[in-house]
Amino acid sequence: MLFLIDYENVRNAGMRGAKYLQPSDYVIVFYSGSAQVMETRYLTAIRNSGCMFETCRLVKTRKNGLDFYIATRLGELFGAGFDGNAVIVSGDEGFQSLREYWQSRSKPPRRVLVNESIERGIISANENDERTAAIREQLKSQDIGNFFAAYQESRKLRELLENAFSNTAFSSRTAEMADILRGDKTSRRIYLDTIQRFGRQDGLEIYHILKSCMENI
Fold it and tell me: What is the C-alpha to C-alpha distance for residues 132 and 127, in angstroms, rounded to an integer?
């Protein structure tokens, strides 16, 4: 996927989702002297992703200067044979005209999306892959009250397990035990999960402690 980032327009907010970039992506950041710094976490994500990356700095300040740069570079890439999803990361509505041109007048049609961030661009491309599913999951809304109730239960369980295993050789692995107990599981399912994770000898010892904890949940 191609991302052309109007950084002067979106700044750091437009880089949300950079952690989902992949080696097959191509990211171009268009920026100017008035917008030439980016949070390290996003630059690190770009580097770690292994994607193709380039920057394009505005030579001389003019009205809509970077918009023309972006339109020109997109045309160059399409002309060179790029035929994947292209995302212009910008809040500038003027880019919708660019999208309309490539999708309605170009032959063959080219798919251009305009979104305010990298992650929204990935969602709108709807490529039906693991990263799209992961982002959709993270963007789901939750009832705050229900979340808090679940948080309290989780904290109670964590504290219970920490106390139960504090003087054992397994005190550093209570997060795994909490995972075993999480959800609506039968005693048999908990037993089998424990044996699978810790082996028969340690698993039996841990299971008996977990069984005692279950009675106090």
Answer: 7
